[in-house]
Amino acid sequence: MPKLNNSEAPLPFPILMGDIGGTNARFSVLVDAYAEPKQFPNLHAADFKTIDDAIKQGVLDKTSVRPRSAVLAIAGPINGDEIPLTNSHWVVRPKTMISDLGFEDVLIINDFEAQALAVATLSGDAREAIGPELETVVASRAVLGPGTGLGVAGLVHAQHAWIPIPGEGGHIDLGPRSERDLQIWPHLEAIEGRISAEQILCGRGLQNLYHALCKVDGVQPTLKEPADITTHGLAGTDKLAEETVSLFVTYLGRLAGDVALLFMARGGVYLSGGISQKIIPALKKPEFRAAFEDKAPHSAMMRAIPTYVVTHPLAALEGLSSYARMPQNFGVATEGRRWRR
Ligand SMILES: Nc1ncnc2c1ncn2[C@@H]1O[C@H](COP(=O)(O)OP(=O)(O)OP(=O)(O)O)[C@@H](O)[C@H]1O
After folding, report:
1. What is the Å distance from ligand 1's center to 21 Cα?
2. I need a surface site. Which of 51, 137, 288, 316 has the fewest CB within 10 A?
3. Which of 7, 10, 8, 28 is nearest to 19 (CA)?
4. Recorded E.C. number(s) (predicted)?
5. Same domain, 215 and 246
6. Residues 287-338: tens digit of each pLDDT
7. Pairing label, strands 141-146, 150-158
8. Is 10 helix (H, G, I), strand (E, B) or coil?
9. pLDDT tens-digit profile of 108-146?
């Protein structure tokens, strides 16, 4: 009978690694600590009844390598032996994976924890600097990812190791600051009466912000999808879409600065998620960095903290493979989320 495993021992090779989002699941296999990971085609969760079917048909049926262990990064809180995914019908059942798919050892971590692991080791060509090109220092970092939702994680550097701190930072309050903000806030759709960061800083949030601006200006909204808003905003072909994108990067900068303060992230703040890469030209305008640095009495300190967009298409899997190769370099907590045969 598979059971919880509190061991800190490295996962046995070959290791299956998975980045399981609400829409997409990406897998790769690491044969040993020196090999390059073998990447499998991106899978859509909607095409498979269960995650076990996806692993079987999308990975195990396509290779003769038999992974002995798995480390999976999932979007959702990890609690107990049955872990439902946020925004997906899949339920992760590590005990069933062990008994039915042949794994000896399964570790489940949070998707933003995997993003944090990636940020520890991403090279210069896997990221694009926003604002001044500052020297990278080995110090705590943070990652924020606006996508379907808003993920936030810290990466604390202590005792010669990188310690990912997953949290629910996307749900902290975001307050109005400027005159324009004070006009907009009453028109934003709230969650139980409050404007959390995720009410604005994600795909749905872009729509929320655009609609609030339309109401303030008494204009009929014409744009529907988040991508329509950013496309017109970036091209300058719709005035309110342009303002929506400008405010979106302002608020993202404001939150990124707060998260940097919280973790003392001298090593930099990294923007991931599906949206950041699509709005790089807007992030490179002055508003993002201005809001990021506007943190009196610590503005001078903020000016020395680099900010980046993660441009690597498979950053979370990169993070998982860094960890799988050298677990001793990372302080990944395994209590209550590692199972063995
Ligand atoms: N060009 C764009 N501009 C703004 N928003 C976009 C754009 N393209 C996609 N989006 C929005 O980004 C969100 C999807 O983000 P993302 O790709 O990060 O998905 P995800 O949450 O990581 O899920 P998965 O991991 O399953 O891919 C959706 O809300 C979508 O509407």
Report:
1. 11
2. 137
3. 28
4. 2.7.1.2
5. yes
6. 999 999 999 999 999 999 999 999 999 999 999 999 999 999 999 999 999 9
7. antiparallel
8. coil
9. 999 999 999 999 988 889 999 999 988 889 999 999 999
- The structural domain count of the chain equals 2
**Residue closest to 286 by CA, chosen among 316, 307, 315, 317:** 307
Query: Which one of 202, 275, 311, 317 would you pick to mutate in the ligand 1 pocket, going by the greatest count of ligand atoms within 8 A of its CB?
Result: 275
Distance 45 CA to ligand 1 centre (A): 15
pLDDT, residue 325, reads: 95
Q: What mean pLDDT comes out for the span 196-206?
A: 97
We report the CATH number of the domain holding residue 38 as 3.30.420.40
Tell me: the pLDDT tens digits for 174-193? Answer: 999 999 999 999 999 999 99
In a domain, 116, yes or no: no
80 labeled binding residue: no
Q: Is the CB of 275 under 6 A from ligand 1?
A: yes
- Together in a domain, 239 and 218: yes
Residue 159 and residue 87 in one domain? no
Residues 156 and 196 in one domain: yes
Q: Is the CB of 42 under 6 A from ligand 1?
A: no
Q: Are residues 257 and 328 in the same domain?
A: no
Q: Both 332 and 255 in a single domain? A: no
Tell whether ligand 1 has an atom less than 6 A from the beta carbon of residue 150. no
- Please tell me whether 253 is known to bind a ligand: no
Q: Could you list the beta-strand ranges (E) of the chain.
A: 3-4, 15-20, 24-30, 38-39, 43-44, 69-74, 83-84, 91-92, 105-110, 127-130, 141-146, 150-158, 161-166, 269-271, 307-310, 338-340
pTM above 0.80, yes or no: yes
Do 275 and 146 share a domain, yes or no? yes
ipTM of the complex: 0.94
| Average confidence (pLDDT) over 258-262 | 98
Band (23; pLDDT cuts 50, 70, 90): confident
Range of the domain at 142: 123-310
Centre of ligand 1 from the C-alpha of residue 295, in Å = 29
Q: Does 18 appear as a known binding residue?
A: yes
> 252 near 147, Cβ under 8 Å?
no
Q: Find out whether the beta carbon of 274 lies less than 6 Å from any atom of ligand 1.
A: yes
What distances in angstroms separate CA 138 from CA 157, 159, 332, one per listed residue?
Answer: 8, 12, 18
Q: Is 241 in the pocket of ligand 1 (CB under 6 A)?
A: no
